[in-house]
């Protein structure tokens, strides 16, 4: 899994880089075989109420699937990274599980729901 980091006009320290890379690799442990690339952009933006906030954007490129893109804005960059990476990993896992199970799981779930409905019990 390739991890790309872009920090536009942001004070990007070696400690923050290590933290980000460790967070991404840990979050994508179960799906790393399905992920081509994870691109992370960090930058400061203007807050609606004045001041500055931190934006973390995580893009996950998957083969034969749409790219997963998550934006997280927080006052603290570490918090933005945590939330964005966790949400991106969760959405990626859901997308890869859908691909594995395909239409059989949907048909199975519909049949199970139908047979469990009280109106169909005898």
TrEMBL record:
Q: Ranges of Basic residues compositional bias? A: 93-102
- Coiled coil located at which positions? none
Q: Which stretches does the entry tag as region Disordered? A: 93-122
Q: Pfam families recorded for this chain?
A: Ribosomal_S30AE
Q: What is this protein called?
A: HPF/RaiA family ribosome-associated protein
Native organism is Noviherbaspirillum album
